[in-house]
Write a structure and sequence with these properties.
single chain, alpha/beta, Nucleotidyltransferase, domain 5, five-stranded mixed sheet, 8 helices, 13 strands, 22% strand
C-alpha cells in the first residue's frame, strides 16, 4: 500500500499518521512534544513512531514524509526561532531526520501545510486563490495565489497573525508584536477577550467564577448558546477584528475564499457569522460579494497530518 507519512509538530503535541493519496489518515498516533527537550531524542521518537505506524499498517510502501511545524523554512529545512517550542534558535530538521528515515522529505510551516491539504484533499479543490487561517493557540496563515503557495524569499511569508491591528496599547503576540491579530483572534485571544468584557461590563456571567487557565473555547461556545452576555460580546468582538483583518488581506491577493481551521473555527457560527458580516462591511466595493469565509473540508482530527502529507502527495500527483 502506497502511503505518505505526515507529521504535525505543535507546541503541545506532535501528531503523526500515514496518509493515502485521497488524504485519508489510515493510522495515527501522537506524543507530547515537551517531553523531548533534547532535539536528537525528539527525532529518535519520530523515527520510532513512524516505524510503529508502518508495523501497525502491514505492508507499506512509504513514498515520503511531509512535516508541518511552527516557523519552519521550506527553503532551508529548518525550524527557526519558534516561540512555543523548547528548541531555540535555528534548528536543522530535515538533514538529521533523513539520516534516520531514508525517504523524500519536505517541511513547511503548519499553516502552509494546512493550505496544501485543503487544496489537495479539502474544500479548496479547484480554487487557485485562497487563504487558510489556522486558529489555535496562535494564528497562522497559508496563502495560495494563482495556484501556487506563497513562500516568500526564504520560506516565512504569510505571518498574518502578527499583522498589527490595534498597535496603540494593544495586546502582544507570541512574537511581541503590539496589537497583532493572533492576540485577539485565536483560542488564547478569545479567552483574553472574555476577561476584557468582564472588566468592561457588569453583566452576570458564568465566567466570573472561572480562572483564566480553566477557560476553554468549548465552554465559551456553550455559554454563548445559553445566552451568556459576556460570551456573546466576546465572540462579536473577536469576529469583528477578524472580519476587518480579512477585508484588509483581500486587497493584497483577492482570494476566492478564506478557510478557517483549528480550535476557534470549531465555534461555528459564533465566529463565522460576525467575521463574514464585518468583512463584507469593510471590503472595497470592487470586492463586495466575491469573497467567502468557509470551514475546512478535511476531517478536523486528521487535518494537520493530512496537510503535512500533502507536501509529498502534491508532488507525486503533479
Amino acid at each position: 500500500m502506497d502511503l505518505v507519512a505526515g507529521i504535525d509538530i505543535g507546541g503541545t503535541k506532535t501528531k503523526l499518521g500515514l496518509v493515502d493519496r485521497d488524504g485519508r489518515c489510515m493510522v495515527q498516533s501522537f506524543f507530547r512534544t515537551k517531553e523531548y527537550p533534547d532535539f536528537d531524542e525528539f527525532l529518535d521518537k519520530i523515527q520510532e513512531s513512524i516505524n510503529a505506524l508502518i508495523a501497525e499498517s502491514g505492508e507499506v510502501n512509504l513514498l515520503g514524509l511531509g512535516i508541518g511545524a511552527p516557523n519552519a523554512s521550506n527553503a532551508r529545512g529548518t525550524i527557526e526561532h519558534a516561540p512555543n517550542l523548547a528548541w531555540k534558535g535555528i534548528v536543522p530538521l530535515l538533514e538529521p531526520l533523513k539520516q534516520r528515515i531514508d525517504v523524500p522529505m519536505k517541511v513547511t510551516n503548519d499553516a502552509n501545510a494546512a493550505a496544501l491539504g485543503e487544496m489537495l484533499f479539502g474544500n479548496a479543490k479547484g480554487m487557485k486563490d485562497f487563504v487558510v487561517i489556522t486558529l489555535g493557540t496562535g494564528l497562522g496563515s497559508g496563502i495560495v495565489s494563482n495556484g501556487q503557495m506563497i513562500y516568500g524569499h526564504d520560506g516565512f511569508a504569510g505571518e498574518l497573525g502578527h499583522f498589527a491591528m490595534l498597535p496603540e496599547d494593544g495586546r502582544l503576540t507570541g512574537l511581541d508584536v503590539r496589537g497583532g491579530l493572533e492576540a485577539y483572534v485565536s483560542a488564547t485571544g478569545l479567552k483574553r477577550t472574555v476577561l476584557y468584557m468582564m472588566s468592561k461590563y457588569m453583566e452576570p456571567s458564568r465566567f466570573r467564577s472561572i480562572a483564566f487557565d480553566d477557560l476553554h473555547g468549548e465552554e465559551i461556545t456553550e455559554a454563548a448558546e445559553a445566552g451568556d452576555p459576556i460570551a456573546v460580546r466576546a465572540f462579536e468582538y473577536t469576529g469583528k477584528i477578524l472580519g476587518i483583518a480579512l477585508a484588509n488581506f483581500t486587497t493584497f491577493s483577492q482570494p476566492e475564499a478564506f478557510f478557517l481551521v483549528g480550535g476557534l473555527a470549531n465555534c461555528g457560527d459564533w465566529i463565522f457569522d460576525p467575521a463574514t458580516r464585518y468583512m463584507e462591511e469593510n471590503l472595497l466595493q470592487v470586492y463586495k460579494g466575491k469573497v467567502k469565509i468557509l470551514p475546512s473540508g478535511i476531517a478536523e482530527k486528521n487535518a494537520a497530518v493530512s496537510g503535512a502529507a500533502a507536501l509529498i502527495w502534491s508532488d507525486l500527483q503533479a
